[in-house]
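Q: My collaborator sent me two sequences in one message, no labels, and asked for predicted structures for both. Can we handle them in order? The first one she listed is below.
A: Yes, handling them in the order given. First sequence, followed by its structure tokens:
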Amino acid sequence: MAWEPERYLQFSDERLRPAVDLLGRVTLASPARIVDLGCGAGNVTRLLQARWPDAELRGVDNSPEMLARARQALPSAQFELAAVEDWQPDAPVDLVFSNAALHWVGEHHHLFPRLMGAVAQGGVLAVQMPGNFAAPSHRLICELAESDAWRERVGRGRMGAILEMDAYFRVLSPWAQTVTVWETTYWQALSGAAPVLDWLRGTTLVPYLAPMSDLEREAFLAQLGARLAVAYPKDEQGRTLFPFRRVFLVAQR
């Protein structure tokens, strides 16, 4: 089961807000080379292009479907099909910007120093990642996927993982003049019949659902949706509050 750009972009405003907040903390005046690492459908790449229109801009992602959408939206940018953990530039980059991608990749103690090694002197590594893995939404996915009924039928679900905040500071400090780390919980008011389920289908659930037949997928989503509806009830206006923690870091080489 491939990534579905249309489903991912269903909540494009909510998914973009952390990227906008991260971008506001990057103070570079005129970076010459920028990489959007894990660029997806190009929504964040568009923000980077708007702020620095004269920069050489490249997006990197491992989803052909997402890159096709990005190339259509931003024909002037360059896009590369590659796993973010394998990406290596041919020359130092002034800004490596990554929004909601690096949590899919393990070994952050090794990954982040390697990324800083790709940043030019005076350049910046700016990263945002979900930090919501202990939330009811993600706990319910794990409980259902690990149940007797589904254990042998779900994919190798890996919803991602991150280090503790202080670990990123320690890992990046030897490589950086300054390191800033912070976290924000966004209290998202979502609408729709099953908005939390729809949100998760655009990202976290993709690897879980990948090997299932259509009938299995329908049954799994029905069971998960019922549990999510209890954990995240609608209010009187039909809105669902879905708090989502995000972690941020900005390191200047």
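Q: And the one she listed second?
A: Here it is, processed independently of the first:
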Amino acid sequence: MTKRRRVPAMAPEDRRSALIAATVTLLREYGTAVSTRQIAEAAGVAEGTIFGVFPDKASLLRAALMSAFDPQPLLDALVAIGTQIELRARLREAVTTLRTGMSANANLVVAPRELMAEDAEFRERMMDGRHRISAGLAALVEPDRDRLRRSPEATAQLLLMLIAVSVHRGFGHGGELGDLNDEEIVSLLLDGLLVRPSPTASTESAS
């Protein structure tokens, strides 16, 4: 039997952070069915240690979900993209960043309904996180406001919708947009759905 990896003694806040980090990883793999024994082994502590930090398993899972859906890492990544590069390239980097984050949490989408149904604070934090990410995207688009038919805020909302349906393949009608890649998402947003003929084809038809 593999022995549990023991970690050195930690300050209470560090121990709490280690338990949350281990739980986030396991939640993404197993969902809320993860056991406290699995969590303890992943964190390298005795199972009883969990209950010295959290009153029960549900409290730990709630804290882990709040950590998993914390928008700040995504917001920092969006800010790091900056507005100096061309709009299409800017949005492509943003889509890659957001799809990576959404994909990591794809299996957690239903978990909040099970654990947070009566948690008003969590619901408010989730809504606030969505608004902040949308605002971060709008800020990336803002320098090109005059080039777009819709406001940066509306553009950000449309982009988030496209990203969501590409990640959550069961969303909508049969998940037919699940094969969208980063490039196509940006193209759909900026160019629409019409297939444009190549310059060669246009020249030939004119002659």
